[in-house]
Amino acid sequence: MSSVAERSSRVTSTLIDHIARVDLRVRDVEKALTFYRDVVGLEVDGQSADHASLSPAQGSAILTLDSTGVTAPADPRATGLFHTAIRFPTRASLGDVLARLVAARLEIGAGDHLVSEALYIDDPDGNGVELYWDRPESEWPSPTDDMLVPMATLPVDLDGLLDDGTGEQAVGRQAPQGTDIGHVHLQVSDLGPTTRFYRDEIGLDLTGSLGADAGFFSSNGYHHHIGANRWRSRGGKPSRNDRAGLARVVFAVADDAVLDGLGRRLKDAGREMTETNGRLAIHDPDGIELEFVSSGSGR
């Protein structure tokens, strides 16, 4: 049996179709755009003094920025955002992003996770960002007894990544069609309640874990749509709204029937939520706001 077929045979969750959008709090929208527009390459498709929405080429908005009432940078120890992971469709397009990071003289981290290659950086407000591309699923490691999608952290061949891109010509280029939010990694206070919520109540597959410190959750056999860790936030409290950070994550599900099923599961679990017009909003155990929308209702 191939690794893809073996993984498919163990998948139980089909809830999440994709991540529709991430909403961030920032102190200054224009300063944040110098990163998300000029370096990441997203296009501004709506802007006011305190709000902006951004999209890839020929795509819908995948990221919003809001500075209303925000006066301080992100709190690194609060629960909320660890990073927003922006996924590029090819290694060459990630190489172009690396060229823009180099041109902007920004300091980055990097990791080869076997399923993907990733670059790590903070935005101007201290919001964590991952920029990555996925290897073809046929090249992912085979499942093990305790991991649906094994991952690791190895060095990235940064020179080779740059060589795959277009070099200096990448500066000023827009993120290509197909760029999206691949996953969101959260900081949580305690992994136990987090796992029970995302696996047992929301209904996602636990694809892997790092003891009591980190867990990864997904639908449809993806390596993770949600990551959660307590490395900096163990016992932490939610970030205040006057600090930069995560406002909400919006997940798209296939249709209204899937959304209705999620609502029934959460009601059975005794969770409070808001359901209106093809949308379901709920807070996780750390107060992180999640919204689930039917793909038929738009983003």
Task: Pick out its properties.
299 residues, alpha+beta, 20% helix
Whole-number average pLDDT? Answer: 96
Give, in spatial order, the strands making up the sheet with the most strands. Answer: 2-3-4-1-13-16-15-14
SSE order? HEHEEEEHEEEHEHEEEEHEEE
Q: Helicity range of the residues?
A: 10-25%
Q: Indicate the low-confidence ranges by residue numbers.
A: none
Tally of separate helices: 6
Provide the structure class: alpha+beta
Describe the global form: globular
Q: Give the biggest sheet.
A: 8 strands, mixed
Count the strands? 16
Cα radius of gyration in angstroms: 18 Å
Percent strand equals 25-35%
Give the N-terminus to C-terminus distance in angstroms: 37 Å
General description of the model:
The protein is an alpha+beta fold and 299 residues long. Helix content is 20%, strand content 32%. The chain contains 6 helices and 16 strands. The protein has helices at 3-10, 29-36, 91-103, 158-164, 191-201, 256-268, and strands at residues 16-25, 43-47, 51-55, 63-66, 80-88, 109-112, 116-122, 128-134, 180-187, 205-210, 214-218, 226-229, 245-253, 274-276, 279-283, 289-294. The strands form 2 sheets. An 8-stranded mixed beta sheet has the order 2-3-4-1-13-16-15-14. An 8-stranded mixed beta sheet has the order 6-7-8-5-9-12-11-10. The chain is globular, with a radius of gyration of 18 Å.
